[in-house]
Amino acid sequence: MPLVAVTMPQLGESIAEATVIRLDVALGSEVEADQEVIEVETNKATMGVTTLCGGVVKELYAEEGETYAVGTILGLLEVAVEEVERTGVSLHGEEDSPEETAVAAENENRPHDYRPGEEEESYSPPKVAVEPSVQGFKVPAGGLRGAHYISPRMRARMNELGLQGADVSAIAGSGAGGRVTVEDLESFLSYIEGWPSSKSSPMRQAVADAMRRSWTRPLATVGTGAPLEKLLAYRKTLNPKPGLTLFLLRAFGIALKEHPATAGFLVGQKIVHPKAYDIGVAVQVEDGVVVPVLRNVDQKSVIELAGDYDDLVTQSREKKVPEVAVGGGIATVTNFGTFGLRWATPVPLPSETLILGMGSGEKRPKWDEEKGAFVPVLEAELTLTFDHRVVDGGGAGVLLQRVVELLQTPEDL
Q1: Can you give the residue range of the structural domain that contains 20?
Q2: How far is CA 19 from CA 63, 65, 66, 70, 395, in A?
Q3: Structural domains of the chain, count
Q4: Out of 87, 277, 323, 359, which could bridge 342 as a Cys pair, Cβ 3.0 to 4.6 Å?
Q5: Could you tell me if 225 and 187 lie in one domain?
């Protein structure tokens, strides 16, 4: 009798595999069309694998507790010819094997004159380019295969020059599949040789390295407005008057303690949660950014933090941050509003999951239900950038809204 495969289905747009948690059938079991026969768990939900037609379980390859990729054959059904004709299912063995499918997909990307068995480096794919409006290197149109591959020879030359992969990303490659060759690199270096340049400082290099490592993660940003009237009114009653960044820092610390899951960071298959709520403050200096860390922000009031905060900002601008304030933070706050910016998407440090930013205050019309009219309200935009592997948009939104709520009772901070 004909055989029909039961395969791991595509259970979601970003789901590549699933784990079998229960087998609902055994060898010899009779099943109907659309019957759930295997229960699986993905990284998002528990779902069922169903049959495409009725039949008898002939083979069962799936095992409980094992993880299988999408498309893996989990079992075979013995099906009557009439059932095949009724449902129109494909028979096992009629489809291309995964290997054949992969080869076909690979050949689709080959140039028309490619000969099987020929080394990739021995042919040059068609080069399609467009002229930029500003004169410089031509930019390849379309995604050529292998454009991000760096050969050992190219890597050795980059190491000699102290270059990173991002440093050569603007070069249009002439090698196989759009690869950047050593000759392309040398041509680029010759091209920019006479351009004005300045030596990058050690701090700038440190910032560049941190940002390169940060962008190896999927980062996302959420934002909302925060009313400032109550905060500014309370601040006027204090002497000396703490900066707005300090209130933001304190509110952030309290909110993180209430929602500790958002402050974790991913290590392999574990999320490591903070043992202390130490938060950094981004301080702009002449050639970069320094991030001194205030310890135990959740345990100290704004007034108690003010002295340490002012000292750290001064020391940072002098590049004399004490060792006790270096590293170990779980998150960072930054006030980009001091530069007149209303909105920004700051990037968290590689060792942190979150960074909270504040923009400049702005009068905005808000509808007042009691007055039945629009009234001016002073607001600042808050943006929270987060590692999407650890925190989802909903969790980040709840955390951000809690920060806004805490800022409305500044006397409690």
Answers
A1: 3-95
A2: 9, 6, 6, 11, 26
A3: 3
A4: 359
A5: no
Residue 329: both structure tokens together: 């933070």
Predicted local confidence at residue 188, as pLDDT: 86
Q: Which two tokens stand for residue 310?
A: 């002012």
Residue 28's closest CA among 49, 55, 46? 55
Coil vs helix vs strand at 47: strand
> Minimal CA–CA distance to 5: which of 51, 69, 63?
51
Q: Are 395 and 358 within one domain?
A: yes
Cα–Cα distance measured from residue 16 to residue 2, given in angstroms and rounded to the nearest whole number: 29
How far apart CA 116 and CA 320 sit, in angstroms, is 62
* Cα radius of gyration (the chain): 29
Give the position of tokens 């040059």: 124
What tokens appear for 317 in the block? Answer: 């601008």
Q: Rounded to whole angstroms, how far apart are CA atoms 152 and 175?
A: 14
| CB-side neighbour CA atoms (13 Å) of 203 | 12
Domain shared by 290 and 145, yes or no: no
Does 198 reside within a domain? no
Write down the residue that tokens 């209430």 correspond to: 258
Q: Compute the distance between CA of residue 41 and CA of residue 249 in angstroms, rounded to an integer.
A: 39
224 and 173 in a single domain? The answer is no
Residues 58 and 111 in one domain: no
The confidence score (pLDDT) of residue 74 equals 94
Of 27, 35, 30, 9, nearest in space to 80 by CA: 30
Residue 51 corresponds to which tokens in the numbers above? 């049959």
CATH number at residue 269: 3.30.559.10
For residue 238, is pLDDT > 60? yes
d(CA 160, CA 168): 14
Section 221-229 average pLDDT? 93
For 189, residues 6+ apart whose C-beta sits below 8 A from its C-beta are: 161
What's the Cα-to-Cα distance from 51 to each of 37, 54, 64, 92, rounded to whole Å? 7, 7, 18, 13
Q: Is residue 197 part of a domain?
A: no
Q: Where are the alpha helices (DSSP H) in 266-325?
A: 302-317
Residue 311 has pLDDT above 70, yes or no: yes
State how far the Cα of 220 lies from the Cα of 400, in Å rounded to an integer. 13
pLDDT tens string 154-164: 888 888 888 88
